[in-house]
Design a protein that fits this description.
There is one protein chain. The protein has a domain of 29 residues. The protein is built from 3 helices and 2 strands; from the N terminus they run αααββ. It has a two-stranded antiparallel sheet. A hairpin with an 8-residue loop joins strand 1 and strand 2.
Length: 107
């Protein structure tokens, strides 16, 4: 019985420690209300996030300064057979390609 009582007291203390205590002001004045509304307004917070995302997009757009170069090489062999038995006719193909790009920014 004593163990259950101690466990109950410990649980209540732990629950009180881990509960969230909001930082509400002790007395609500007009200034406190306005400040709380500015900090916790969903529309204003989403505009802040949008502004930060736009700033990050701008930095990312200004970043690429060096050109990139991509290359591809492919080679193939095609064997054809005729209507009167297997005929080993072949056609070879080869393809080589290079691609380069660079972002130009206005100063």
């Amino acid at each position: 019985m004593e163990r259950k009582f101690l466990f109950l007291i410990f649980s209540c203390i732990a629950f009180e420690i881990f509960t969230q205590n909001p930082s509400y002001p002790v007395s609500w004045t007009l200034e406190n209300c306005i400040e709380y509304a500015k900090e916790n307004n969903i529309s204003i917070n989403s505009l802040r996030f949008s502004k930060n995302a736009a700033e990050q997009d701008l930095l990312q757009a200004k970043e690429p300064q060096y050109p990139n170069l991509n290359g591809t090489i492919s080679r193939g062999l095609l064997a054809l057979h005729g209507s009167n038995g297997l005929q080993l006719n072949s056609a070879q193909s080869q393809s080589i390609g290079l691609n380069s790009s660079m972002t130009l920014t206005a100063a």
